Amino acid sequence: MAEIRATPQQRAAAEDRGGALLVAAAAGSGKTKVLVDRLMGYLTDPTDPADLDEFLIITYTRAAASELRGKIAARIADALAAEPDNRHLQRQLTRVYLAQISTVHSFCQAVLRQYAAEAELPADFRVADEQQAAALRMQVLRDVLSELYAKLDDEPDFAAMIDTLGYGRDDRDLLKLAESSYNVMRCKVDPEAWMADCLRAYTLPEGVAAEQTLWGAYYIRARASALERADAMLAQAEALCRGNAAMEEKCVPLLQQNRELVRTLLTETTWDGCVQAGIPFFGTLRMPKGAENTEQIKALRDEAKLRFKSIQSYFYAPSERVVADLRKTVPALRGLLTLLQRFDERFTQEKRRRHLLDFSDLEHCMIGLLTKKGSGRPTEAARSLAQSYREILVDEYQDSNTVQERIFQAVSRSGQNLFMVGDVKQSIYRFRLADPAIFLSKYDAYLLLGAQAPGQPRKLLLSQNFRSRPEILEAVNDVFSLVMKKEAGGLDYTQDEALVPGAQFPDSPGPKVELHCLNYLASDEESGDKTGAEAEFVAARIERLLHEASVTENGALRPAKPSDIVILMRSPGMSAGVYQAALQKRGIACDAGADDNLMQTAEIEILFQLLQIIDNPHRDIPLAAAMASPVFGFSPEELALLRAQEQNGDLYDCLCACREPDEKLRAFLSWLSRMREESRRMPLPEFLNAVVQSSGLETVFAAMPDSERRQSSLAAFASFVTSGAQADLRSLSELVQLLTQLQQRDKGLPAQDAPVRPDAVRILTIHKSKGLEFPIVILADLSKKMNMKDNNPAVLTDEELLIGSNVVDLASRSYYHGLARRAIIDRKTAQNVSEEMRVLYVAMTRAKEQLIMTSCSAKYALRLKKLLPRLSEPLGPWVSAAVRQPDEWILLAALCRTESGALFAECGPCAYSRVRRYPWLVTLQDVSPAAPAARGAKPDALCAVQPLDREQVMQSAGFRYAHEAATRLPAKLTATQLKGRGLDLEAAEEAPAQPEPVRKPWRTPQFLQDRPLTGREKGIATHLFMQFVRYEACTTREGIRQELARLQAEKFLTPRQCEAVDTEKILTLFSSGLGTRILRAKNLRREFKFSILTDAAAYDPAAAGEQIMLQGVVDCFWQEADGIVILDFKTDYIDGDLDRKTARYAPQLRAYAKALSRIYGLPVKKTILYFFSAGRAAEIDPE
């Protein structure tokens, strides 16, 4: 393809100044290029060149921020290459990695750290991991619920909530309800105001009519709108009758009477009046024989009656009863809101105690910092920030929510320096609480660029597409200009929104858009497999594509490869394996990607089982699963024989009671015992690595198919544990408990994206494909019904209609939808349909050269016959809004094309079909249920491979890499590892090591005993004391006690840690000659962290010459006239051999000496170890 030059619209978007600018950038229109061009325009302005750090650039993922930063750096480098002496550009290149290009949460975190005092936050706050925050949230919620249960008699509203919202066999759903309601509440700009609005809406005085309530007024408006649509349908039917004398005589009078009836119904605006009006009789329409358009006229009239009947069903009772139903829900809703308020207070306290913020806190603390409560006016901090930004550029603006919008407004200059770019037609993250209404409100309100007054906000449309062939763009325009309306999709898809071809492609034969309608033939009695049948068709079509299709590369055509093809589905789930098996049966490699939930991958499931049995081996199911896994390889027969050893005990008791254990069992029990012992001593990240390495789990899965993805899963899990250990995850038991809670709540750990296979067809969700492009897109499973599970909870919320719940009859223990909940369901359903239409738009616009759509459904002819009469020009918005299967939108567009003869053969001709410039390939064919083999095939099945010859195998096996030692080096090394241990055990046990028995007695859980601190924990307490104590106060016992009291009051030590500090041992140190030397030292430093590059020979002599990062923390050092003195504190138990202990730590102390000597340029004259348990010091030669 030819080089893409900036279009006039792109140049205008990059160059326009002087007010807020909203850029509606259609798919493939180069919005990232526009954003970078605009920034470069500021940086290279000849009269007023800007600095990069004068801009705030917001993206919605870290990956997008990193990619954008790279593109900006590349553009600056290109500009600098043209002007190598330009000092300004040189400065910008050095600032590019300091510029504020980040997600909104990263931006909030940076600002809150800067203004921590003003925001009343601790300066060392941490941002909680999503999974850990969720676990903490659930723990606090359970505590609050338990407290409310304990005083149920004093909490009538809470009791009403349990009775009416916690219906069912138990109250388990209450937890889910409270958690989901809390998430909604926290998405409001002012959660407290939202709860107050909810309670105010349910303040229903005596005599109030239903139409005076928020929800009754909504239905009065909805009824009027439905009647107006019915009138429009009847008018359309009347117009079709005109010109035919027989129909004008027989049909028009009745249609006119129907319209008059509708207009009369429109005059009623009271609830009881609407109830009394009911559903009037519309008469019987008798069509003359042989007349044209009879089916469409009947369909329009039937649809008009159906619309009215549907809305009238909501006027189910007189006003008095409807209001009474609303009143019944008030105590329960009040109880729920009270629960949320108390939980929010407790959860906030717990997070503050731990110095934690979650993502919601980041946004709300930011609003609290930037706006004054009540008035919403900007604070001094907001004004200061606003002055520091020349412009704020927001990418993917359609995915903003109301909280983020408030932040953007607060840090901008009254919104005047906002540059917002996005495409509301691609807003598909409503489940993440994105609000496309924010974009749409500005899109409707802003004037087009050039029509606005100076300083007024304006909008600009980028419609030229540089991704896809014209054939594909015409198909997209045809579908969405027909079906996308304000009522379904959020906006009218007009000529302004239509995609315009902007890229050049070489000529290629054949249609580029295909629609394959698969009529599924399984009988009612036959189980069948519709997914398997569609997968078989798709696999066969891909097989033909690989023989006949061509794609463009560097301006020329080449044969298509598997990696050029992607199968997109709304939610593949289990279907991905079916498609994968169908492709593998034809010898076509397929990459279905990693599971979205890390916990559901085989390798992490097994690792979790190992962690469970190490934490508690008396768990039968995890123990049996771990033993039967590929890691240990026990067969079912072996497990059965072992289980029979002990009738009364659990499986672990049976293993330990085995009289003659074989080598396999002895090895397993020895491993389990060793890991249980290590779990008490090692930090979690190191322990996890020890489990993986010692069990051979990594090796086992490295030998399996898709090993790269499996290793990526293990790395992602290790990363999660490491980040947790840096926060509040301290022990194996806590980790197991957290993962168990996530499983119980159907939550998981997000999987990392595995490397893409370069030789395989890919299967992706449509959401994951957003932002990507593919030469050939197969859009499958289009007949799948839309997911409306958002309407299921007992309590629903809405931005406009606030909150609503079911009405419960306690006498009969039955429930039904109340007026408020019915109204919210209607709103949510409309929002879901709009979102699904936008998802379809995203899917269709991923294709560059070929778009193939498949839809598999039973009784296809019947579906077509129902759709055809609904067609009109223009299409009624109610038709689009009524769709519940995405393929119907495409079928409506296909029926408007003359090449859809296969469809017309089943449903009859369409009066609206037209010849288009680029014809589709439209087929309708029968498919039978897939063979059982296709349904049950395993995706991971290995294809047969040709054996290698012996000489080749021996030659490969004998190969030795020249730098093998370097491959064993870690990326970085800690000084403590140089002493011969792989772990930092400076705070070692104060008790001598005990012999390791084969079986440890099961200890009482911590919460059932007053457990003393372990030796390691005592050692940590001593180190913390020595880090923060005032040394000059440690010369007397009373001084040491006062310091302990101070450190406890200032939260440096807990009460238990203070008790663990041995006052006598501290006094012994400071009463010694070494203590006197410490007190006299000048320039004394504690807990000094360092990182240096050094020769790897210190770690592995075979790797001499390689560089390795050495890191460490020096407990204490000071400078004297002739050099540096290093002092390191040890709390190890000394069994009498002090020299052996000293020699063990010598490499560590010499590493410290080498580092400090290099950093300060001074010699290290002494390195001293002080052992608290012995009260003695030992010197080590620093060389």
Describe what you observe in this structure.
Strand 27 (1123-1130), helix 46 and strand 28 form a beta-alpha-beta unit. The protein starts with 7 loop residues before the first helix and ends with a strand. The chain has 46 helices and 29 strands. The protein has 1183 residues and is an alpha/beta fold.
User: What is the average of the pLDDT values?
Assistant: 86
Helix content: 40-55%
* Number of DSSP helical runs: 46
Rg, Å, rounded: 36 Å
Gap from first CA to last CA: 65 Å
- What is the count of β-strands? 29
Entry summary:
By secondary structure, the chain is of the alpha/beta class. Helices cover 48% and strands 13% of the residues. Residues 932-950 and 980-1009 have low confidence and may be disordered.
What are the main properties of this structure?
single chain, 1183 residues, alpha/beta, seven-stranded parallel β-sheet, 46 helices, globular
List the helices and strands and how they pair.
Elements: H1 8-15, E1 21-25, H2 31-43, E2 55-59, H3 62-82, H4 87-95, E3 100-103, H5 104-114, E4 126-127, H6 130-150, H7 156-165, H8 172-186, H9 191-201, H10 214-241, H11 245-250, H12 252-266, H13 271-277, H14 294-312, H15 319-353, E5 356-357, H16 359-370, H17 380-388, E6 391-394, H18 402-411, E7 418-422, H19 436-445, E8 447-448, E9 458-462, E10 464-465, H20 470-483, E11 500-501, E12 513-520, H21 530-548, E13 550-553, E14 556-559, E15 565-569, H22 575-585, E16 590-591, H23 602-615, H24 620-628, H25 636-643, H26 651-657, H27 663-679, H28 684-695, H29 697-702, H30 707-726, H31 732-744, E17 761-765, H32 766-769, E18 774-779, E19 795-798, E20 802-809, E21 814-817, H33 819-844, E22 847-858, H34 860-867, H35 877-881, H36 887-894, H37 901-907, E23 921-927, H38 932-936, H39 950-957, H40 964-967, E24 972-974, H41 1015-1028, H42 1037-1049, H43 1055-1060, H44 1063-1071, H45 1073-1080, E25 1085-1095, E26 1107-1120, E27 1123-1130, H46 1138-1160, E28 1164-1171, E29 1176-1180
Parallel strand pairs: 1-7, 1-9, 2-3, 2-6, 4-5, 6-7, 8-9, 10-11, 12-22, 12-23, 15-17, 15-18, 16-17, 18-22, 24-26, 27-28
Antiparallel strand pairs: 13-14, 19-20, 20-21, 25-26, 26-27, 28-29
